[in-house]
């Protein structure tokens, strides 16, 4: 299964915000929508960073609650690992495992096109395994 197939099922919607927004605004979006990461973009959906729960916890642990007044730019991860619609689930698992992160923005023609999380990947792998098990049952039943 590819990123394209995942996005066809889950959609291309991504929560984003600008780099100059206060960290507190980002925390509110993360909490309100029960998500683990926000893609930081400029006005035309060009990816310039990613802000994850881990980034927030790291800065709060170092600096305390005053860190919530910082801008997203000061806390985000600016070197974002991205994928495209042709990446496979196995490739995504390898990228995420090696990088030790749980979210990969999807880029198409230089712009944000979606996001894939480790949860999306696990869900698709379960679907694949269930489908394969059903195919084996059908094969055995007709053999």
TrEMBL record:
Listed CDD domains: CBS_pair_bac_euk
Record's keyword annotation contains Electron transport: no
Gene3D superfamilies according to UniProt: CBS-domain
Keyword tags: CBS domain
CBS domain ranges (all copies): 7-66, 76-131
PROSITE patterns tied to this protein: CBS
PANTHER family: CBS DOMAIN-CONTAINING PROTEIN, CBS DOMAIN-CONTAINING PROTEIN CBSX3, MITOCHONDRIAL
Protein name: CBS domain-containing protein
Origin species: Oryzicola mucosus
């Amino acid at each position: 299964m590819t990123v394209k197939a995942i996005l066809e099922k889950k959609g291309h919607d991504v929560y984003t915000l600008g780099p100059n927004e206060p960290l507190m605004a980002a925390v509110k979006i993360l909490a309100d929508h029960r998500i683990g990461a926000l893609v930081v973009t400029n006005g035309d959906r060009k990816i310039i960073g990613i802000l994850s729960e881990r980034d927030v916890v790291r800065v709060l642990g170092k600096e305390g609650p005053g860190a919530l007044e910082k801008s997203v730019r000061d806390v985000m991860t600016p070197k974002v690992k991205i994928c495209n619609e042709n990446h496979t689930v196995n490739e995504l698992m390898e990228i995420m495992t090696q990088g030790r992160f749980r979210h990969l923005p999807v880029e198409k023609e230089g712009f944000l096109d979606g996001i894939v999380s480790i949860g999306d990947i696990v869900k698709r792998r379960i679907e694949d395994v269930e489908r394969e098990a059903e195919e084996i049952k059908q094969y055995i039943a007709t053999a």
